[in-house]
Design goal:
7-stranded antiparallel sheet, 30% helix, Alpha-D-Glucose-1,6-Bisphosphate, Chain A, domain 4, 158 residues, alpha+beta
Amino acid sequence: MTQDEEGALDLVFTREVPISPGLVWEAWTRPEHLVRWFTPAPWRTLEAEVDLRPGGIFRTVMQGPAGERFDNVGCWLEVVPHQRLVWTDALAPGWRPSAKPFVTAILTLEAVAEGTLYTARVLHKDAADRDRHAAMGFQVGWGKALDQLVALMREGAA
């Protein structure tokens, strides 16, 4: 697969937000914050578990408005404080292969004059998964979740 073909399997969300990379980082890396913003309303995040090191667990349990639950388990691949987080559900904690991989996500945080340039690049194994994720409302969902993150951190949650 060429680099162009690989990029064609990605979904990207970018926005400048009026809070510091440090506050965005705290929201992403502390379970007590994740459960308050991670899933776009009316969905909820019921549980979050973070072992912030390569190979460590990144787990969330989401609940939909009809009560459906989704347990998402993966591991961190890269952790660069206040700059970059990379995780995947293709691997479980301890680098164990997972049964149903869906995404690998790369979150970059860049300090800008007004706060943070927030970029999420989500990589998919094939076009079908990319299209399914887009149809699930990737852009709107990531936007709502980011709005919730910003509101939480502006309230002084950190």
